[in-house]
Structures are given as structure tokens and as C-alpha cells.
Amino acid sequence: MSLLKVTVNGQTVEKDIPESRTLAQFLRLDLGLTGTKIGCEEAECGICTVLVDGVPVDSCLYPAFKAQGAAITTIEGLAQNGTLHPLQRAFIEHGAVQCGFCTPGVIMTAKALLEQNPNPTDHDIKVALKDTYCRCTGYTSIFNAIHSAASELRGEGPLPWKRVETVGPLSAVGQPVAPPESVDKVTGRARFTDDYVFPGMLIGRTLRSAYPHARIRRIDTAKARALPGVRAVLTHEDVPGDNIHGLIYDDWPVLAADKVRYMGDAVAIVAADDADTAERALGLIEVDYEPLPVVYGPEYANTPEAPLVHEDWPTGNLLKHIKVRHGDVEQGFAEADVIIERTYRTPTIEHMFMEPECAIGVPAGYDAEHPKLTIYVGSQIPYEDRRQTARALGLPEDQIRVRGTLIGGGFGGKEDIAGQIHVGLLAQKTGRPVKMLYTRQESLLFHPKRHATVIRIKTGARRDGTLTAVQAELYGDGGAYASLSDKVMTRATTHATGPYVVPNAKIDCYVMYTNNPPSGAFRGFGVTQSAFAVEQNMDLVAEAIGMDPVEFRRKNAQRVGATTATGQLLRESVGLLETLERVDRDMRGGTPGSFRWGWREGNKAYGWGIACAYKNTGLGGGAIDRSVAEVEVFEDSSAEVRTSSADMGQGLTAVLAQVTAEELGLPVARVRVLLSDTDLTPDGGPTTASRQTYVSGNAARHAAITMRDALRAVVAERLSVAPDELVFENGRVRANGTAVELGEAVRWMREEGREARARYQYDAPATQPLGTGGDMHFAFSYATQAALVEVDLETGAVRVVKVIASNDVGRAINPRTLEGQVEGGISMGLGNALTEEYIIENGVPWSTLFARYKIPSIKHTPEIVSHIVEEPTADGPFGAKGVGEITSINTTPAIANAVYHATGVRVFCNPIDQDALLRALKAGAAEVHTTWHDVR
Amino acid sequence: MTLWTHYHTPSSLAEAHALLQSYAGRARVIAGGTDLLLDIRHGHLTPPEALIDITKIPEMCSLIQEGDDLVIGAGVTHTRIVTDALIAARATCLVESCGVVGGPQVRNVGTLGGNVAHALPAGDGTTSLVALDAWADVIVRDERRWLPIRELFLGPGQSLLDPTRDLLVRFRIPLAQEREGSAFKRIMRPQGVALPILGCAAWVRLDSSGERCEDIRLCIGPVDRVPVRAEQVEAAVRGQPIDPATVDAAVAAGRTSLSPRTSKYRATASYRQEMIDVLLRRVLPLAAERARTGQAVPEGVGME
Ligand SMILES: Cc1cc2nc3c(=O)[nH]c(=O)nc-3n(C[C@H](O)[C@H](O)[C@H](O)COP(=O)(O)OP(=O)(O)OC[C@H]3O[C@@H](n4cnc5c(N)ncnc54)[C@H](O)[C@@H]3O)c2cc1C
Ligand code: FES
Ligand code: FES
To answer: d(Cα A411, Cα B141) in Å, to the nearest integer?
Structure first.
């Protein structure tokens, strides 16, 4: 221990701390300043940025004693006397805050920039924020926010938010409302799981497998248990309930027993007094493995010689065979003048939410606040966490409480169990709270990812441009455990015709068990992969028949009255053509006659590419799609809406507040939102499949309507007016001349002995399972994107210059958070096309560092033009349908098509490899079938 | 995980040296820590008992012009180099190479000395120092002396310096005179680790007519286990007029004399070979132009 003297946010601090502290540890652990976040501990992501004597540094790898005598500024020091700094205001106003996990670091980096440069250009902002990453926003809003704050600081006033055009906004719905938690997120007050501290809390760690595939002969924990400071070491033998979990199939051991199936498998867990002891204890656990041959990929998994990943699975390594049959493909291809058949490959993709997984278990009866075993976690499916934890712990579900914390990004990657069950086990065992925070490296190793696929697709069309048939075969790498593979790859399969009318289709998908990390949900849910193949094949067919790619799509686009390949008649809300027209008009500019798909300027080649997409809203396929919400109104004329649905930054809290406010006639600011507490909020179902605005939005809306009708009756009686003369507006209930505050009505209701509370269970329209015909989904969102790329003909480097996007979302309930989804979705699609790939070498992940898995940085940000199309769906809240995924699906194929138009080389694998592209250009080859993982 | 136990911030070279000696191999020198702490964290290095932070030693942090030379402390950060007007004007390639290291947070703490001591075959700062024919002031095995920078490197990640006892104190570089200029560029890929596919720094002196290349120094890497000069390419340019034919000759010499390798997930040998062409065509004319005009505005800082 040594004395560190610094000023922190203007205050002198003198503290005896270990010399081994990093600055981030000093701030978070010794000073409790948890606004500074940790995303990687590799000096890569930049979100731990604080200012040391005004200079931004990565606090995660900055020795605290390097700062001896310095002045440190953190996010907590920005607001003065409760007044937000212009940057903080601008980040909220411009929608630059989504999950908020990166926000402190981004704001601090921006602050250092503005101090040196009061009037930065976009280029200056790119240089300053190049290594400060955000996975949610796609950065466009961050540029706007910084320009706005700079303008305000220069005394020229803030810049207005760039409004997008939407159909008639109502008083709350259709307004660009900031999610209520935004202020906490820009001040550092927002608490994510790792920010919670309980007295006596232990640190939990997980021992992961040493092999991708091995039998476990023996586990010896004696030495680890004997280490002073170790409070528990648990193996499969210590799981009191069923040693199994899973979302659809229960195939994933809580702790590996006889076998390990991937490098992320948990073999033992430890709770100790501190992180170092826990870490040391892991090293003392002896596991005797018998390594087995590795099932390294889906095609190999399907061969007879491949060993079995799950010996007891009835179909061997075949996790699921998914089929779509529609019409007669033989006939369809016989009618075709042109048939194009190609194979496309997409890699494993990582979510890289900025907040690594964290869970805390507090044992039952630990203190007054925790009569039950309580799990704190930022999860996309709190009730599922409770179900799975209860099963493993052998407890009734109602003896466990899952309290959702803020989620630092999810994108599908926080649907599966991470540490929830383990901290439950350790907390019950030790009788003390246990926190389990995954390092970035562990997170990369462990959690389910986007399926790698191999997609062979054959498209037939007549010379007039009519599609006649599509046949496709997809192989999906399901990894070691089922997770959501079944559903994800079903979506890949059913969407493999693209959003087109295809009279004959035969699609087969094989999802295979392998010894790779499991694959599961990821924004786009399988459709991202099939769109890459479908939309490139569409361009190939268009070229072969000599038709413009837009015209070809226009001719075949789904319209109202069309039938999908799963046999669903589309009766309403098909905005595809409108999205196509809007993008096409914009892309061709004022003089469409002079438009060219590709051209060259010096050593640069430019090209436009276009791609369409559709994506179901909701679970579909016959699943009950239900959400329950509760609305309570209080005597101070405020309301609270409660449901267990997750806001991982996408803006659900704002949407729920808005629909509730709209129906109750309240200002949005008077509606609080409580999410994801299994004791206080009813089940909203999983936050997946772009369903929450629709399903929980409807549940909240109907709960609010029920509440309003009850209040209406009370007020009508008291004021002796007809109920339908009453108007709910601005926090008051009004009828010809007289008016009462909503809170007054609540009081009257209570006087009658009734609670001013309403609960509504919303069941989305019924759907049918695949293969039975009928409605597989209750709504689809549609989109078109055009990308303009620049290819450096000397290096092969690809840059996305501009993206024009148009999304049919039914109704823009919150245009600002919607734009956030559009910009963030495009950025993710751009990463999928150009920068990202999770590499696995014979079952051993290589991409286990943030430094080895590049997500788009601010310097990749293209100019984005967004058009919103609102083709309402009858049952959606105010007509709304899903938004979260559709915005991200067609970016990648649009970029690939653009690269083709620029260079004449078509790339069949993503991410696009400049090395291979350049070699193809030099060799005059027209196709690239390798990517950078082939550079060896 | 605890990455070190004790942290010392000596204020003189003697003190730093004595501390290292007292730990007898159990301490490491730290400057910005942007290489070192990652090496420890990723298990390439066992956590040392102590870190000896050299960035508060005045000699290590000085930037002093001595006649036509510039003396740069090993503990000077990339940011200080990038924002120094004298270096921008008269050792331009160094600004261009330090300007592409990491992002601002890394450049604010990472040092030129750390870049050199890490001894990668294509550390960006190192590439330019080699082209500038820098000398290094070192304390090796308790003896202080000046060495040509190239003599420091023994292999990938290996230098003459024993990082548990030796110190790199300063660099000396000649500042560009009339008719001299330099430039640096590199090629990156957007996937995977942020190591250059290829980096290239050139220093050029023109003859009194301003047309011929009187002298040239060129460093391209990685093409070997250590940073090297591309001597045959230099020979193809030296004494020649700076014109397209000479650049073609340089490219041809590069093709025959340099044999870059394929490195996993970074670049194929044939791509690298193409990039040697590209870099020579970009860097040589730029350096020569700067020599001719005496004007130099660094390019690509903070973005490449
Ligand atoms: C995100 C990120 C991006 C990066 N990008 C690049 C890049 O683009 N190009 C590039 O070249 N590098 C890059 N680096 C690597 C690194 O930042 C640079 O090499 C930097 O210059 C290292 O300096 P440092 O002061 O941080 O060294 P340290 O990590 O402190 O030290 C590195 C090594 O040198 C020794 N050492 C340091 N100073 C002395 C001294 N005075 N005497 C004796 N030994 C000494 C240390 O003991 C250690 O072995 C990157 C690093 C990160 C984290
Ligand atoms: S850079 Fe510090 S946490 Fe990522
Ligand atoms: S808002 Fe930036 S990572 Fe979520």
C-alpha cells in the first residue's frame, strides 16, 4: 500500500492503495466512481477513457501511480452543480446514447477534443475518436452531438436534432422522446451489473475447458479449496437440481460432467475473497482430460467419420433439418431462361456488445432487501433466466428473483445463460453475495455467436425478369449447444427466397452440432446470412438477363396479395416497393439519365449496390407470442408501466412510456418505466425477434387503455357527464368546461376501494408452424438499402462512402430512437461486410481479444440517408412493427453488390478481403471465394 | 489479475538504474505500458515484481535541438512528436509514423522508446528512425554509449537491451537540411490486429540542381526478422533523376531484392510484394517533392 495523491474532478484525494492498481481500478473500486466503464482491458476499445491533466488516456491499463499528483477528470466531474455539460445534453438530444455503456468514454474523449479544438471538422472528430468504440449508435449521432456541443460552447447555440420525416405525430407517439434513463447514462450514474457492490461480496470465476472436445476423467479441486481466501469450488457434483440448461433444447450442462464440447465449457466455478485468489484457485484445479477428435465445421460434422458431439442426440450431429417446400422447383427451373447457382460463405460473427457479461447472486435471507435468492443481471430474458436457474438449483421458480440491471448492449448475445446459474450456486453455497464478471476475453470465448453458414443457392428467372424458382441448401454451424439454432436457422431458411414472389421453392437447411462456440441469436436472426446469398444471386440473375437490378427487384417484389414461400398470404403492410422507390430515386439523383452503377476516377473505382430485405416481427411459427404489462397511475398524476422486457439500448423504455402516455393523456415525462424484475414486473417474454415494440408495446397500450376506461367511469360518475364526453389530455380529464387532474381521479378511484392499476396480457395474432401453410408470422418489416463504395485499385481496400436506407417499420413511434436503430444497424452490417470475423482454428477460437476482432470504428462511418416508410400493420401498436433487425440485414449484400459494380469482381465470402480482391483484380479473375482467414 | 506488485517512478537515470539493479531481474522498465502491460496481461510475460516508470526522468522526456540534430528522449510520447512543428517540418516521416500508432489515447502515453525497445520488425516509429539514420543513447550492461539504431535489433521482439536492467535514453536524428525530405506511409487491413501489412519510410537528399537524388535511405518492413534498409532499392535511386523511370527502377529493385513473407491473417506474400510497389510509388515521389520544395505537411496523421 502506498499513498496516492491526486485531484479527482476538482477534489483532492489522498488514499492508501496497492501499487498494483490501474487507474480504472482506483476510480471504480477505491473511489466508487463507477461511471468509468471497462470494455476490454486491452487499451483497444477506449470506453475507459478519463482525462489525466486534460489528456485522454485508457484508464484500464494506466497504472494509478503514473497519475501521482495529476488532476483526473471522469464523467462524474462533467456536470456542474447539477447542470449537464453541453456535451451531455447534446448526446441526449441527438440520440447518441443507446445502451450507454460506451457513453462516458466517448463523452470524455470528445471533451478533450473540444478543449483543444472548439470547432472540429468531421475529420477531426474521426481522429480524436478513432479508438473509442460504440457498438450501438453507428456514430452518426455522435458526430452530430459533438458538433452541437461545440457550437453551444462557442456561444452559437446548440444544433437541432435532424428530424426525419414521419407521418403525423401524436402528442407522445411519433415524437422524438429521449429514453428516461438517458440522463443517468451521460452522467455516469447509470448502474450496470458490475457497478453494484454488496457488503461481503465474493468474486466468482469460471474454469473453462482446455480442449474443444474431450472426455473428462477426473476433476480434483482439493488444492484449490485449500487455498486461503477461497470460499467455494463447485463442479457438476455440486449442482443440486438438474445439471442442464438451454433455451429451447436442454442440452447444455451447467458444469461439464463427463465431457467438454467447446473451449468455453464451464468445468468448475470458484468464489473467493478477491479476484486474484479466485484466479489462482482456477490454476489449482486439476482436470484429467482425454482429448477427442474435433468436429471443426458443419460440413465435416455431417460426414460419417465425424465423432458425435452429443452421443445421445437422436439425429447424430444433425441438430435440425429445416425444409421449405413451395410449388414445384423442377417445373420452375424448366420455365426459367436463366439459372444462376453459386455458393456463398458467411463467417461466425461476434456481438461485441461493449459490456461483457456480469451477474451477481445474493443468497436468500442475506439482508432485508434479499429475502429470496436474487440474481442481478443484464439479460434479454429475465423470466427464462429464472426458470433455468430454478431448475439447476432445484428451487421453485418463485423462490428466485431476477432483477434486471441496465444492459450494455445485447444484440441477441444476452439471451442465453451466462453466469446467472453459477452465481446462484455460489451464493447459496457460500451464504454471501457473489459477483461474476467476465473479462472481454472470456466473453469472446464463451457466448453464442452468429452462425457461420455455407449457402448454395440456385435462382431461375424468365427473360422478362420473372422469378420462377429458388432452390437452396444451407449449412449452419450450430456449435456445441443448441441455443436458439433451431429458430435462427429456420428464419435463414424461410427468408431464403428474399422478399420476392417466388412461385417454386425448395430450401433445405442443415444445422449441425460442432465443437465450435455455440451459435444463437444475433440481430438479423439468420436472415443476415441468407440475404448475403440471395441478394447477390439476384444481381447475378439481373445481369444475366440484362435487366437493371432495381427493375428486376421491382418486378418480383412482394406486394399485398402475394404469397410467401411458406404459404403465407400477405394481406397488408407490405412496404417493400415504397422503400425500393425511395432509395432508387435518391440513388439516381436529380439526373437519373446520367446514373451509372460503377465508374473509375484515377486509381479509385466507385460502385453502387442495392439490396432488399424482409424480416418477421415476433416469434411466429406457432409459438405463443405473449407479453404482460401493468400500468399504475398515482395521485400525483404520474404513471408507471411495468413489464419484464429488456432495454439493451434500443429505446424500449421510451416506446413504452410513449404509448402509455398517449393513451392516458399524460406528458411522457410523467410516465416511469420499470423493466425486468421478476418480482415486480409481469413477463414480457424474450426481447428478441424485433418483437417488443409490437408485443410489449401492445400490452402496455392495452393496459393503459384499460386503466383509462376505469378512470373514465369514475370521473364520469363524479362529474355526472357521459363517459364518452371525457377527454384525457395533458395530465387532466376534461369535459365541457370542467376538468380534473388525473391524480384526482386516482384518488376518487381509491376512495372506492379500488387500486388504480391495470394489467393486460397481450397475445399477438396466432401463427402457424413452418410446413403447415398459413401465417407463419403476424407481420414483416421491409427494407431497401443502396451502398456506394470506393475501392482503391492499388491496395484493394474498400471504403463505404454512403448508404441510403429505407425501412418500412409500420409506424415510427419514436423517430429518434428509430434513427438510432437505422444508423447502428447499418454500422453493424458494414462490420459484417468489411471488418468482422470470429476465427476458429480446429475448435480453438483465435479471436479471443478485442484487438483481434475489429468492429467498425468512427472512421468507417459512411454518410447515411434514411427514409422511413410507414405501412401500418393492423394489430401493431399505432401500426408499428419490428425495427431492431431489419435495419442491419441488407447492408452487407448492398456493399458486396457495390464492390462488384465498382470492380467487376464478385465476392462470395464476407468479410471482403482486400488482399484477395487485389489479387483477383491483378489476375483478371471475376470471383473471390476466400477471405482473410485463408491468409495463412 | 494483478499485473505487477510495486511501482516506482524514479526522477533520475541513476535512480532508475539503481532500482533495476536492486530488483536483479525481477523489475521491468515501463514507459507508456501500451506494449508491456498487454504482454503481461496476455501471459507472454510473467508479472514482474516491480515496474520502473521512466517517464518522469527529465533526460528521457527532453526534446532538444542541437545544431542540425534533434535529440529525442526515449520517453517522449507519440503525441508530443506528432504535435511538434520542428519535427513535422524537418523529420516529417517521424510525425507520419508516430501519427498512425493506435488512437489518441495510446499515442498520449505510448513512447518512441517503447516502440523501439519492443523491437518489432515493423514498429511504425522504428521504421522512420531507421530511414532517418537515428542513433540511440543507451545504457547496456551498465555502460552508456551511442549506437546506430539498427544495431539494437536482434530479432522479432528482441533487442540488445535487457529490459530488466538496460535503458534506452535518447535518440539523435539529423534534421532535414536544404534539399532533404522524408515521408512515411503504411498499408493496413480493417480486420484483425492493428499491425501494418507493410510500412515504408524514405529519406531523400537531392543534388544542387534539385533534380537528381544525391542520397537516399529507405526502410520497408516487415521484410526481415529485424527492421532493415532496402539497400538495393536505394541503389536504384541514388544518383538518378527523380522521375517515373527511376521509380519504376526502384519498384523493380524492390521486386527482386525484397522477399516479404505471408503472415497469418495479415497478408499474403504476393499481396505484400504488390504493396512494396504501391508504397514505393507513394513514398518516393512525396519525399522527393518535400526535398525539392522544402515544404512538408504530414499526411495521414491519426487516420491510417
Ligand atoms: C491499441 C493499440 C494500437 C497500437 N498500434 C500500434 C501501431 O499502429 N504501430 C505501432 O508501431 N505500435 C502500435 N502499438 C504498440 C505500442 O503502442 C507502441 O509500440 C508504443 O510506442 C510502445 O511504447 P510504450 O511507451 O507504451 O512502451 P512500453 O509498453 O512501456 O514498453 C515496451 C517495451 O519497451 C521497454 N521499454 C520501454 N521504454 C524503455 C526504455 N526507455 N528503456 C528500456 N526499455 C524500455 C519495456 O520494458 C517493454 O519491454 C499499439 C498498441 C495498442 C495498445
Ligand atoms: S481500452 Fe480500456 S477498457 Fe477497453
Ligand atoms: S451506446 Fe455505445 S456501445 Fe451502446
So the answer is: 54
A621's grid cell: 411459427
- The grid cell for A419 is 453466469
Domains along chain A with CATH numbers? 1-173+180-189 (1.10.150.120), 199-292+357-437 (3.90.1170.50), 453-619+771-934 (3.30.365.10), 626-763 (3.30.365.10)
Residue-level pLDDT at B1: 81
Contact across the interface for B268 and A935, Cβ inside 8 Å: yes
State the cell numbers at B291. Answer: 526535398
Q: Which residues pair with B186 in a beta bridge?
A: B199
Identify the domain containing residue B38 by its residue range. Answer: 6-53
Q: How far is the alpha carbon of A847 from chain B, nearest alpha carbon, in Å?
A: 8
Residue A168 clears pLDDT 90, i.e. is over it: no
Q: Distance (Å, rounded) from C-alpha A125 to C-alpha A146?
A: 8
Grid coordinates belonging to B288 = 522527393
Residue range A410-468, pLDDT digits in tens: 999 999 999 999 999 999 999 999 999 999 999 999 999 999 999 999 999 999 999 99
Q: How many pairs of residues across A and B have Cβ atoms under 8 Å apart? A: 144
Could you check whether the bond before residue B241 is cis, i.e. omega within 30 degrees of 0? no
To the nearest whole Å, the CA of B138 is away from the closest chain A CA by: 23
Taking the C-alpha atoms of residue A929 and residue A395, their distance in angstroms, rounded to an integer, is 52
Amino acid, res. A578 = E
Q: Is residue B46 part of a domain?
A: yes
Of B126, B156, B174, the last residue of a domain is: B174
Distance CA B91, CA A287 (A): 57
- The answer to whether residue B298 is domain-embedded is no
Cell 411495468 found at: A642
- Residue A629 and residue A9: Cα distance in Å, rounded? 42
Report the residue among A99, A181, A184 best suited for mutation to probe ligand 3: largest number of ligand atoms under 8 A from its CB.
A99
* Tens digits of residue pLDDT in A223-257: 999 999 999 999 999 999 999 999 999 999 999 99
- Ligand number nearest to the C-alpha of A57: 2
CATH number at residue B107: 3.30.465.10
Which residue is closest to B187 within chain A, CA to CA? A795
Residues of B in contact with A854 (CB under 8 A): 190-192
Could you read off the pLDDT of A310-359 as tens digits, one per residue?
999 999 999 999 999 999 999 999 999 999 999 999 999 999 999 999 99
Quick check: B295 contacting A, CB < 8 Å? no
Contact A635, A751 (CB under 8 A): no
Position A421 scores a pLDDT of 98
- Residue A648 CA: distances (Å) to CA of A89, A93, A188, A688: 21, 19, 17, 11
Task: Determine how β-strand A71-73 pairs with β-strand A2-8.
Answer: parallel
| Whole-number Å distance between alpha carbons of A563 and A324 | 14
Distance linking the first and last C-alpha atoms of chain B:
33
Average pLDDT taken over every residue of chain A: 97
- Are A129 and A81 a contacting pair, CB within 8 Å? no
Which chain B residues are within 8 Å of A112, Cβ to Cβ?
104
How many domains does chain B fold into? 3
* CA A161-A163-A168 angle, 5° bins: 140
B94 part of a folded domain: yes
> A394: phi > 0 → left, psi -120 to 50 → alpha, else beta; which?
left
Residue A164 has pLDDT above 90, yes or no: no
Element (H, E) at B136: strand B135-140
Q: What CA–CA distance (Å, rounded) separates A611 from B53?
A: 54
Cα A23 from Cα A74, distance rounded (Å): 11
User: What is the predicted ipTM?
Assistant: 0.98
Atom of ligand 2 at shortest distance to CA of A45?
Answer: 4
Residue range A432-442, pLDDT digits in tens = 999 999 999 99
Query: Measured between alpha carbons, how far is A847 from A838 in angstroms, rounded to an integer?
Result: 5
